[in-house]
Amino acid sequence: MTDFTSQTDASGVCTITWDVPGKSMNVMSMAGFADLDALIDAALADPAVKGIVLTSAKKDFAGGMDLNVIARMKEEGGADPAKAVFDGVMGMHAVLRKIERAGMDPKTLKGGKPIVAALPGTALGIGLELPLACHRIIAADNPKAKIGLPEILVGIFPGGGGTTRLARKLGAMMAAPLLLEGKLNDPRGAKAMGVVDEVVPPEDLLDRAKAWVLAAKDADLVKPWDQKGYKMPGGAPYHPAGFMTFVGASAMVLGKTMGVYPAAKALLSAVYEGALVPFDTALKIEARWFTHVLMNPSSSAMIRSLFINKEALEKGAVRPALPDQSVKTLGVLGAGMMGAGIAHVAASAGIKVVLIDAGQEAADRGKAHAEALLDKAMKRGKITAETRAEVLARITPTTDYAALAGADLIVEAVFEDPAVKADVTRRAEAATPADCIFATNTSTLPISGLAKASQRPEQFIGIHFFSPVDKMMLVEIIRGQQTGDRAVAKALDFVRQIRKTPIVVNDARFFYANRCIIPYINEGIRMVAEGVAPALIENAAKLVGMPLGPLQLVDETSIELGVKIAKATKAAMGEAYPDAAVDAVIFRLADQGRLGKKANAGFYAYDEAGKRLGLWPGLDGFWPVLDPQPALPEVQHRLLFAQVLEAVRALEQGVLTDIREGDVGAILGWGFAPWSGGPFSWLDMIGAPRAVEICDGLAARHGARFAVPQLLRDMAAAGDSFYGRFAPRSRAA
Ligand code: NAD
Q1: What total number of domains does the chain contain?
Q2: Does 550 sit in the ligand 1 pocket, CB within 6 Å?
Q3: Phi, psi of 108 (to 5 degrees)
Q4: pLDDT, tens digit, 9 for 90 and up, residues 265-304
Q5: 366: domain range?
């Protein structure tokens, strides 16, 4: 079985069909490329073939390159991995360039065979780079299809000619959002942008493609960039308009990436430098920059965490081997912010939901929240009125526990109060079938403690969502001491149904994500108390790739909540409570009514409409900024190691059992510097000995919270890396 097959009809049109065996979506592999190359050679050489239609037998065209192949190219490159990557990429360019020239005479540019890409659906990455090398792209009018080049989102850039071809087809300005942000379009949007040439009804796709092949003239096959006098749309770099574009784009890239994502800058360099030279040289430049990015440890780490391991977790890499536990009817207890959000995502995934609150009005409000989100999605054209109605019909808001009779999973999201939670646990268990799994969405209360209210503790588990539920992609599943495997499998199957990414952790205070994010916030607040300039703290965080500075983050999650958590933690820990310095700051702000964004006042100032204006100038009156200020790396190390050491402790203590979950969870859960691939990937990048050296210094200057965990010290002594020592070997990925 090969990935591509071909068939020539009586009219002389050879249809090459992409259909990777055993997969629902085509992905490109090296073997696939070789198949395609051979079929193109054969069709170009066959006098009976007048032209070629390249299409797919699946509902979509292709999802992209198999990123495992890209990762392997480097690993298997032997003594000179950069050369291996460069040669591999140039090999692909040669095939795509052959398609583009299609046998035409290099001087007269005549006599080539027309090649059309006919896209039935989604075409991403190499799945669009290949069509871009063809002479025409015709897409089926399929509103669900996504067309684009999303490579930048996993830390690389389109390196199969897509960067060079798209910039030349559209101009740097128009291509910028597609290349630099990985923006995807449906076929009509792609046509409006000039990415595809034609959109036709799905049933006409192949006929139209064949008709174009048979009617094409020599001139139709010559790409603008192969014609004499080609000028880049919008101007090349030394044209006044082009100059403006590139100056603006450089500033935008730096502003958005803070200089920590090598791929965005390399992409821009490839476009800029490529625009100054002939097309074939531009491809070589693109390949060199692509190699440069692949050789950067950041790209490998991002591919590993954001693609390979994320997908492995979603496909159940850590799922107990039990029969399918898909949820049919979900009971949600508590229709507040979280409960309503959970009801919305579950109903959207086709699950029936019984949404219970103490009063009918509150339950109805929860459903209204789902309705508002669906209305928004409909206005944006993401769902139809019919889908909206179907989703809403699945949600039954009620106060009556008897309605839970058919539920196979309960998620509890009532007030964060053990007594209230115990009460609803008992009531729900009395109303549900004996095999129903009960989950709590608590963010701070230990699962094993809450399980005491349950008659079936092996069916009791934590399923911890993040707010806002519809946007946050991570779900933390927490095993209590007595939680059984079926509960874990049920939780994982539920998360798969709602298309989020799960991690499974053991029960400990704040589980994993909150355990790491709280020290980050606290370290920022401590520095305010010490007289470090708040702007230095916030910018230091952003310059290491954190999406939000710690002070903005606490404003967004609310200073009031911080105060509540601090009080509860202090009560639970007693004398051992380590964060009095932090409390002094947030309690003082809270006393002033500065409760965070929702109060329009916090570490930042806000206007009446809630728009963030800048750091609140009054901070200086409370905590004067000292002179001299610490150096930037010192502030950055404090902010990073506050999180990273907590992740290492979570691993050391067995809260985390899989470093893949630690890395993926950190990026999706709290936005830990995605360029790094996560805390463990970052530690591997700098090496355990360097990490120990930095932390020993931090501990000496700032205290025991930076004390090096024994595990890390042992690893430094042994010369171990986390992925070397802990990478799961028995499981996929
Ligand atoms: P919320 O106050 O918005 O909602 C709680 C809801 O529970 C309210 O509608 C309330 O009427 C209802 N409720 C209270 N007692 C009840 C009872 N006995 N029976 C039925 N309903 C009852 O709170 P929230 O922010 O949605 O948080 C809910 C849970 O989710 C808490 O355990 C919280 O720790 C957790 N959580 C919150 C967040 C967050 O960011 N807010 C994130 C993750 C987890």
Answers
A1: 3
A2: no
A3: -85, -15
A4: 999 999 999 999 999 999 999 999 999 999 999 999 999 9
A5: 329-508
Same domain for 714 and 636: yes
Q: How many angstroms separate the CA atoms of 5 and 16, rounded? A: 6
CB within 8 Å of 290: residues ≥ 6 apart: 85, 89, 156, 157, 159, 266, 270
Is residue 343 within 8 Å of residue 366, measured between CB atoms? yes
C-alpha distances in angstroms, 528 versus 190, 207, 420?
Answer: 48, 68, 37
Rounded to an integer, what distance in angstroms lies between the CA atom of residue 235 and that of residue 223? 17
Handedness of CA 167, 169, 173, 174 (dihedral sign): negative
Q: Is the CB of residue 639 less than 8 Å from the CB of residue 541?
A: yes
At 130, the pLDDT band (50, 70, 90 cuts) reads very high
**Atom from ligand 1 closest to the CA of residue 557:** 40
Same domain, yes or no: 434 and 572:
no
Residue 429, pLDDT score: 97
Which range is least confidently modeled, 378-382, 404-408, 458-462, 524-528?
Answer: 378-382
Taking the centre of ligand 1 as the mean of its atom positions, its distance from the CA of residue 518, in whole angstroms, is 20
For residue 335, how far is its CA from the centre of ligand 1 (angstroms)? 7
Q: Report whether residue 238 contacts ligand 1, using a CB cutoff of 6 Å.
A: no
Classified as helix, coil or strand, 605 is: strand
Cα 193 to Cα 174: distance, rounded to the nearest angstrom: 8
pLDDT greater than 60 at residue 515: yes
Query: Which of 354, 369, 415 to probe ligand 1 with, by most ligand atoms within 8 A of CB?
Result: 415
φ, ψ at 31 (rounded to 5°): -65, -40
Q: Are residues 537 and 504 in the same domain?
A: no
Average pLDDT of the residues in 32-41:
96
Contacts of 386 (CB under 8 A, 6+ apart): none
What is the pLDDT at residue 729? 57
Question: Is 464 designated active site?
Answer: yes
Confidence at residue 732, expressed as pLDDT on a 0 to 100 scale = 41
Does the CB atom of residue 407 touch ligand 1 within 6 A?
no
The reported pLDDT for the residue numbered 677 is: 96
Instruction: Find the helix packing angle between 513-530 and 580-591, rounded to 10°.
Output: 80
H-assigned helices in 398-484: 418-431, 447-450
**Confidence check: pLDDT of 730 > 50:** no
Q: Report the percentage of the chain scoring pLDDT > 70.
A: 99
Domain boundary among 508, 530, 546: 508
Marked catalytic residue, from 292, 344, 369, 464: 464
Question: Nearest C-alpha to atom 17 of ligand 1 is from which residue?
Answer: 358
What is the per-residue pLDDT across 168-214, written as a single tens digit (0 to 9) for each? 999 988 998 899 999 999 999 999 999 999 999 999 999 999 999 99
- Do 476 and 553 lie in a common domain? no
Does ligand 1 come within 6 angstroms of the Cβ of 336? yes
State mean pLDDT over 57-75. 89
Ligand 1 centre and the CA of 664: distance in Å? Answer: 26
User: Which of 508, 539, 557 lies at the terminal end of a domain, its last residue?
Assistant: 508
Minimum CA distance residue for ligand 1 atom 4? 336
**Rounded to an integer, what distance in angstroms lies between the CA atom of residue 348 and that of residue 340?**
12
Residue 343 Cβ inside 6 Å of ligand 1? The answer reads: no
CATH number at residue 60: 3.90.226.10
- pLDDT class of 664 with cuts at 50, 70, 90: very high
Cα–Cα separations (whole angstroms), residue 376 to 341, 469, 471: 14, 15, 13
Cβ of residue 305 lying under 6 Å from some atom of ligand 1: no
| Residue 32 half-sphere exposure toward CB, CA atoms < 13 A | 20
* C-beta 335 within 6 A of ligand 1: yes
Nearest CA to ligand 1 atom 29: 413
What is the value of pTM for the model shown?
0.90
Q: Ligand 1: which of 332, 333, 337, 417 to mutate, judged by most atoms within 8 Å of the beta carbon?
A: 337
Q: 640 or 571: whose pLDDT is higher? A: 640
